[in-house]
Amino acid sequence: MSDNNQKMKTPAMPRGGGPGGHAPLVTEKAKNFKGTLKRLIKDIGFQKYAVIFAVILTLGSTVFAIVGPKMLGNATTEIFAGMMGGMGINFSKILSILATVSILYLISAVMNYGQQLLMADVSQKIVYKMRTDVKAKLDRLPLKFFDRHSHGDILSRVTNDIDTISGTLQQSLTQIISAVATIIGVAVMMFSISWLMALITLLILPIAGVITQFVVKRSQKYFKSQQKELGLLNGHVEEMFGGHTVIQAYGKEKDAVETFDEVNERLYQVGWKAQFMGGIMMPLMNMVNNFAYVLVCVIGGVMAINGRISIGDVQAFIQYSRSFSQPIAQVAQIASVLQSTVAAAERVYEVMDEEEEAITAKDGVSLKEVKGGVVFDHISFGYNKDVTVIKQLKLDVKPGQVVAIVGPTGAGKTTLVNLLMRFYDVDSGQILLDGTNTLDVPRNDLRKNFGMVLQDTWLFNGSIRDNIAYGREGATEDDVVKAAQMAHADRFIRRLPQGYDTILNEEATNISQGQKQLLTIARALLADPKILILDEATSSVDTRTEAYIQQGMIALMEGRTNFVIAHRLSTIRNADTILVMNDGEVVEQGNHQQLMAKNGFYADLYNAQFLGEDLQEQGA
Questions:
Q1: 342 with 228, same domain?
Q2: What is the SS3 string spanning 109-148?
């Protein structure tokens, strides 16, 4: 399976100082923003009542919080009037105002807590459903999808992109509603106090917008360069640590350090520029806000002296003007986050819209007591419509036979096996299993009859016992040990400190490559399939271990059909049929003796391989 080296497109969120302490976000924009947003809204529709209730709580919390400064201003006015009028301060009225404000703020806090709790539950339910749907979709996708996309890209869509959606649903959705409600509410309250001072405050907005645009335009390129250089540095460090043995063996430590220094210097240069440009945002915004603050204070003071406005209203207006710019910056930031969120959702939907494997009819043929007879009846296949990989292949394999498939790289050997197990479907012709067209058999029912050992081993994080037992549900300890013995893995397993209880790490790097291959062979033996497929199964083991495996295979292959894709031609001398492929066609067919007697393509491959091995032995 080949991986396309596609880069993961995760939204970048650089650090630094911007409005509200945030740097300008470097976002990935969606190709179809409106369409994807509508689809996302539709997908969260099953939680619409909870979302609506959360929005109501958010609006209520915001309204109660906005009313507070006005009422506190009334308390200030009451104190000022009592002191200036000589009648004394009416503490009971002030306490009543303060009690009312406290209740309002308490209700606001409770409603805010309620919406946060509700949205946390809603976002997790939505993301849970989305991950479940994506996982189910991936299970239904054909192998060609995984050939076109790198594992890292698929993993990024399932984790990073969905997490981005989750974070936006939980935080940004209610934040933007709260911010918009705050802007509208504060503007209304300011105009209700003084239209003149409100206009002065609003006239500051264009100035703030110009400053923001100026800084963002010049800082964004530095943040992009910073993310790029940071990625290069991380990649270099990961590469150097992963290959430190090779680096030391070739004495390239100095070169590695010099490369690190070069990338690190570039990161430093763009990093300080990015942080400086992002950092000047807040001082500039504070300067503008303070200028507006001074104007409001002066004009408000003059108006209060002239009796056109109360001192409490001046205090309330100052509070409103100080809190007016923050939600505006918040809306700008959330708008940028929303771009990244829709782009992330678009990447998830790209997976959901992929063409699925053709589903066999529910009334498909059920295989019973499979014997293992396989017929390739003039099949043709191509990964692309313009290029045919397998051309009119015809082959009749009797139950219990050993069929070896050999040929140069790209000849179509693995493709033949992929067609046999219906990882891909033929373009023309048919593949028959005991006389039944495999296209009429549900894939799961078909694959239950196959055991497969690949050149690239796959073991999961767990004990050796569990990895072998993966081959058959309900396998006993004796079954696991017997399979390991047949694969000649029992001896090395018992030499490990914990034996069969030895835990393999995530990449199974605590055992050798050859030992990993032996475990996968033992797992296939435990499955006891009717048809066994070995794809370069012994390519990762030494000659002596390979000889042990071959002895076990002779006993294993009794009574079942076997397809062996071989690189070492010495391992398939005893095969019943050797299929020699080149450019998608069967160029020769027969047993070892027959093909060697022809002195054709197979004989050339065989002699070239042994000549190379002899030269290696002489050189050693």
A1: no
A2: HHHHHHHHHHHHHHHHHHHHHHHHHHHHHHHHCCHHHHHH
One domain, residues 466 and 514: yes
Please check whether residues 179 and 292 belong to one and the same domain: no
pTM: 0.63
Cα–Cα–Cα angle for 525, 529, 535, nearest 5°? 70
Continuous segment of H or E residues that includes residue 554? helix 543-556
Q: What percent of the chain has pLDDT over 90?
A: 5
Identify which of 529, 446, 450 has the alpha carbon closest to the alpha carbon of residue 483: 529
Question: 424 with 142: CB under 8 angstroms?
Answer: yes
Q: Which two tokens stand for residue 361?
A: 């009819």
What is the SS3 string spanning 180-226? HHHHHHHHHHHHHHCHHHHHHHHHHHHHHHHHHHHHHHHHHHHHHHH
Query: What would the pLDDT profile of 250-292 be if each residue is shown by its tens digit?
Result: 788 888 889 889 989 988 988 888 778 777 777 777 777 777 7
Are residues 567 and 444 part of one domain?
yes
Closest CA to 471 of 538, 519, 421, 503: 519
Q: Order the strands of the 450-453 sheet from edge to edge.
A: 450-453, 531-535, 561-565, 402-406, 577-582, 585-590
CATH number of the domain to which 591 belongs: 3.40.50.300
Q: Please check whether residue 188 lies inside any domain of the structure.
A: yes
Range of the domain at 503: 457-528
Same domain for 234 and 96, yes or no, is no
Do residues 268 and 400 both lie within one domain? no
The number of folded domains in the chain is: 4
Q: Residues 493, 439: one domain?
A: no
Instruction: Please give the C-alpha separations between residue 575 and each of 135, 569, 572, 578, in angstroms, as whole numbers.
Output: 41, 11, 5, 6
Instruction: Decide: 514 and 548 in contact? Cβ < 8 Å.
Output: no
Q: What is the DSSP annotation of 17-66?
A: --GGG-PPPB-PPPSSHHHHHHHHHHHTGGGHHHHHHHHHHHHHHHHHHH
Q: Measure the CA–CA gap between 620 and 618, rounded to whole angstroms.
A: 5
Q: Do 107 and 180 belong together in one domain?
A: yes
